[in-house]
Amino acid sequence: MSAPRSDSLRRDAMADEAPARRGAVLTIVVVVVYVLAFANVALGILVLLSRYDVPEADVLTVSLLGAGIILFGLLMVALASALARGSRLARLLLTGYVGLLILLQLVTIISTDVWDIPATVQLLVQAGAVVLIWVPPASRYFVARADRRTGAASAA
Question: Which residues make Cβ contacts (< 8 Å) with residue 16, sequence separation at least 6?
Fold first, then answer.
């Protein structure tokens, strides 16, 4: 008769160890971050190639802007993967990187005329994605993952 009792204990233990499920909002944000990352790489390449259309004095500035946008876009690809796993560090780093990308895109908007609309659209979508990872329900996933880790460490 003790077998059913042990099964119920196993089920309770498995319920406690079940990983927190990533919500639909966070999944959408992760997809948006991937799309934005590759869009940033594409925009950076286009800005970098547009250095041939600017005056000689602005070539270095436009080249550095393009290279910066490409590099931060590639870093966002790595952070999107970590964000999907619930890394709190990835959430912090993504916020910082998006802040730097917004600065780079503002400089791009101010210094070039060709990339105003694509850079503005990306700027707004990136800011929206960062807001979504910090507000509930997506932020609860990161708290649940941290609670599970600290709970497991204190139980041992």
Answer: none
